[in-house]
Amino acid sequence: MAVYAVGDVQGCLVSLNELLDQSPIDLKKDQLWFVGDLVNRGPYSLETLRFVKSLGSQAKVVLGNHDLHLLALGAGIKRKQDAESLQAVLDAPDCEELLDWLRNQPLMLTDKKYHVVMVHAGVYPTWGLKQAQSYADEVQAVLQGERYKALLKKMYGRRPNKWDAELSGWARYRFIINAFTRMRFCTKAGGLNFTQKGPPESQSRKLYPWYRLAYQPRGDWRIVYGHWSAAGHWYDGNHIALDSGCLWGGKMTMARIDARKIKTYQVTCSD
CA quadruple 158, 87, 68, 174: dihedral positive or negative? Predict the structure, then answer.
């Protein structure tokens, strides 16, 4: 069995199928991991959800900010006018089933066998991997429980923008969600910046890409993530960035992540 991870799909199912067809992946035995943002903006969000769900145990998914936005729409937290390309999901006869499946996906996945951590946006600079997993589990427990609608309502906002272990309640959960699903640049002190979204080196002098400040994985551990389309695909030994801007006319990227040497596959977006 091989393990592959693919960058943000965002409803671009045609490109995803082309990528799978042009790679050696065998979905009958290999695993396909998704770094989040399965939906929104692309034309086939509904079909993408159905496809990934149909893979069963062959697929692993972490939640991205667009996936959480869909859950908020489905829960009636956001107006239908905000649905954009997600209306087909909301109108589908299997909408409830799909959203229940999506709500039960984690914010962070740690695989000790392959020494891989998968998140959507990144791992906050002051958190070790064990800490990060425990914080992700906190939010996951609420999202999968009876208070999930309250969490979806309270998750929007940019404050607090700096971690404090004493944070509690909705403010704590909001920060954890923002770190895992929206983070790009941070200050040296760990303040999240939500306004600058360009490529690394385009930011103001007091900001840094999160991975330059973050705890560096030891040994052969790797952090696999997406979200930052302007940064593109890159790999430095410990970080594998997979969002290469398919939705914006770029490429969709997939990498085999269980082997010592990373093998990458790409297609130009055709959705």
Answer: positive
Distances in whole angstroms, Cα of residue 98 to Cα of each of 13, 91, 109, 157? 16, 12, 20, 26
DSSP 3-state of 222: strand
Q: The tokens 């490109």 sit on which residue?
A: 15
Contact indicator for 43, 85 with CB cutoff of 8 Å: yes
Q: What domains are defined for the chain? A: 3-268 (3.60.21.10)
Q: What is the CB neighbour count within 10 angstroms for residue 271?
A: 18
Q: Mean pLDDT over all residues of the chain?
A: 93
User: CA-CA distances (angstroms) from residue 151 to 33, 108, 128, 148, 155?
Assistant: 26, 17, 25, 5, 6
Global model pTM greater than 0.70 = yes
Q: Residue 56 has which token pair?
A: 């069963």
Which DSSP letter does residue 245 get? B
